[in-house]
Automatic annotation (TrEMBL), chains A, B:
Keyword Cell wall biogenesis/degradation attached: no
Binding site for ATP: 7-10, 180, 185
Annotated family: Belongs to the aspartokinase family.
Pfam families, sorted: AA_kinase, ACT_9
GO cellular component, one term: cytosol
Ranges that cross the membrane: none
InterPro entries listed in its UniProt record: AceGlu_kinase-like_sf, ACT-like_dom_sf, ACT_Aspartokinase, ACT_dom, AKii-LysC-BS, Asp/Glu/Uridylate_kinase, Asp_kin_monofn, Asp_kinase
Protein name, as recorded: Aspartokinase
Catalytic activity, as annotated: L-aspartate + ATP = 4-phospho-L-aspartate + ADP
UniProt keyword annotation of Kinase present: yes
Molecular function in Gene Ontology: aspartate kinase activity; ATP binding
Lineage, top ranks: Bacteria, Bacillati, Actinomycetota, Actinomycetes, Mycobacteriales
Function: Catalyzes the phosphorylation of the beta-carboxyl group of aspartic acid with ATP to yield 4-phospho-L-aspartate, which is involved in the branched biosynthetic pathway leading to the biosynthesis of amino acids lysine, threonine, isoleucine and methionine.
Protein keywords: Amino-acid biosynthesis, ATP-binding, Diaminopimelate biosynthesis, Kinase, Lysine biosynthesis, Nucleotide-binding, Repeat, Transferase
């Protein structure tokens, strides 16, 4: 008998029928003898509908009120799931984030969990009940105001609750049945992975995989909570994310998969003085405006005039704002030019096996060469190689690398409707 | 400068545009120099939509979960109104029922307010902010669970908050601009009343007027909170409900209006033994099953066989269940027959002036006679006369009484779209 936390995403709860299907799964898990705690996202498009209403009432709504509004979505799905579970004869009790003891910082819209004190949830479990907890929400310790956890907040709620309750596993349900070696819409023989270590999953999430939010994996890694990615439409065991990179025996270390990301743009600043502190000026102005940059590359200095070029990538959404900020600095700093390109894509190869397999970088670049794909930038970490290519080459590059490292399975990947949400 | 509590019903908040119109009114009241506390119902059809979802997930949902579900509706309208108020530049803070200190009994779906401890609301007022409070909801003192107050719960929240804060007035906004001498859809020269005492309003509400819920008027009377019925579509001052019957000077006591009610059915039990305790058997079985009866009439005993007939009215919704319960007793009790009729209507004349005007009952019955309306049952209280008539005669009876007592105005009544919700 184990304690299992299950998190269901919005697409798994988009209708009364889907909610009943989810409830059946929850009750079946309980009947197998396990204790079950469930975390729910808002139903289907509820959050978008509420955001739309808010925009029509006030284009710049106060963040505190926005949190009060949005958390209604999880309260609705939460109570409906509890009702559905009750209809199958199981004892059940629902909890808001506050009732479940999710204590957060005061930052509305993007609060951080300070601690989870799940006394009431534990009481419900001890009484034999299934506990249903509203995801994405918490309560500010000082003001007692309702807060939300930002993007991926329900996943984070589930992992944090699992850590606080000492759960054996945290299952994340969506409409995708696991983590694949590549996006099955791009690579048709992509293979579902049985297991990944936390570091591999972190690199995948940071490289464009949408299946788990980076923050929830970081939380799971910090508290050593095994996560399992599963589909609410099938009984496939999914993909287990657990264990540390250093605990993988060398002979079992493999390459896990190829991640793609077309959500970034590239900015190049030409003619930056090659003096200490010049690059810092660029990154300080962006940081002060809360713009996160990803890859950075500084070319070697041009010897005859002692200037250099700085190139970096950033989310497309922040591109125009970053260009405005930098253009405002250009004259004062004496930069020659600033260029912007959002027609780029990132392709990354990830896997613990990279440590023990020499020549991976050579094979990676040769695969792209053979596919006729030009590499614009390239960076590596201990278990990842990433290349920036033209966006129109991204899919071809992904397939070339996937083939080169023989990551595919024998059968075409199953692609569910809505995969990738 | 006064402290004013304003309550807005669902039809006043049914769209983003309506919410902005309501916010403008709230801010205007604040700019007049008043402190303002606002209580919101759920938007338009939200509650019905949530009820429908719940029914599809579980036809007999647990009451605790139902309360968690339904209160999401008021949280949504509450935060949207707060956002809209903020967009007009006013300082504003929203509160859930729990945050506003609405402490209730544990009875989910129909909880009673035990006390209101509006410390946080008072702090917001003292800081110059407009406070927006979610209606219809509270928190169980013992379990800290979310509760709802049942039908008319938002009106009751508003009155209870007004009482706890010592407000000068509690304004109840809907799409009707006051209390009329009769339903304007039936009586075209019905006149809006400027003022009523609590007892008159209680009799009107108990006699079928839908404009204020009985319970909220009882609460206002108990704590002496002046209520004002107003329309969110106009600037009409509406109708003030305040003061005690005994404080009305005799020369100012008038007849207030005619109320109609087609929501009841009539049950007659024939051949009941004319012995002590026989009628009690009937009413005990109904009370034990939480069926409320309204008017009761026991005919004089038939001398030759010492039996009598008992007739009473009750909500149509409870009619079939009551008949089942009584039929089950019929053989044992030896009743001759039980008849059921839901084609009846109640017409009532109400007003403090009844005390000082002799002959009102005679005029009342003559008005019905002259209109060719047969009276089935008749009862009176200190300030009310009620007759049960055939449902098809109800509108004609209403007009006849309204004319007889010259309650009409010089102009046709204004009927807004949706009047009567």
């Amino acid at each position: 008998m184990a304690l299992i936390v299950q998190k269901y995403g919005g697409s798994s709860l988009e209708s009364a029928d889907r909610i009943r299907a989810v409830a059946e799964r929850i009750v079946a898990t309980k009947k197998q003898g396990h204790d079950v705690v469930v975390v729910c996202s808002a139903m289907g498009d509820t959050t978008d509908e509420l955001l739309d209403l808010a925009a029509r009432v006030n284009p710049t709504p106060p963040a505190r009120e926005m949190d009060m509004l949005l958390t209604a979505g999880e309260r609705i799905s939460n109570s409906l799931v509890a009702m559905a579970v009750a209809s199958f004869g199981a004892d059940v009790q629902s909890f808001t984030g506050s009732q479940a003891g999710v204590i957060t910082t005061e930052r509305h819209g993007n609060a951080r969990i300070i601690e989870v004190t799940p006394g009431r949830v534990q009481e419900a479990i001890d009484a034999g009940r299934i506990a249903i907890v509203a995801g994405f929400q918490g309560v500010n310790r000082d003001t007692k105001d309702v807060t939300t956890l930002g993007r991926g907040g329900s996943d984070t709620t589930a992992v944090a609750l699992a850590a606080a309750l000492g759960a054996d596993e945290c299952e994340i349900y969506s409409d995708v049945d696991g983590v694949y070696t590549a996006d099955p819409r791009i690579v048709h023989d992509a293979r579902k992975l049985d297991k990944l270590c936390f570091e591999e999953m972190l690199e995948l999430a940071a490289s464009g995989s949408k299946i788990l939010v980076l923050r929830s994996v970081e939380y799971a890694r910090a508290f050593n909570v095994p996560m399992r990615v599963r589909s609410s439409y099938s009984n496939d065991p999914g993909t287990l994310v657990a264990g540390a990179l250093e605990d993988i025996p060398m002979e079992e270390a493999v390459l896990s998969g190829v991640a793609t990301d077309a959500s970034e743009a590239k900015i190049t600043i030409l003619g930056v003085k090659d003096l200490p502190g010049e690059a810092a000026k660029v990154f300080r102005v962006l940081a002060d405006n809360e713009i996160n940059i990803d890859m950075v590359l500084q070319n070697i200095s041009s010897l005859h005039n002692l200037t250099t070029d700085i190139t970096f990538t950033l989310p497309i959404a922040d591109g125009p704002r970053a260009m405005e900020l930098l253009k405002a600095l250009q004259a004062k700093e004496g930069w020659d030019n600033i260029t912007y390109n959002d027609q780029i894509g990132k392709v990354s190869l990830i896997g613990a096996g990279m440590k023990t397999h020499p020549g991976v970088t050579a094979d990676f670049t040769e695969a792209l060469r053979d596919a006729g794909v030009n590499i614009d930038m390239i960076t590596t970490s201990e278990i990842r190689i990433t290349a920036v290519v033209r966006e129109i080459d991204l899919e071809e590059a992904t397939r070339a690398i996937h083939d080169k490292f023989e990551l595919g399975g024998d059968e075409p990947a199953i692609v569910y409707a809505g995969t990738g949400r």
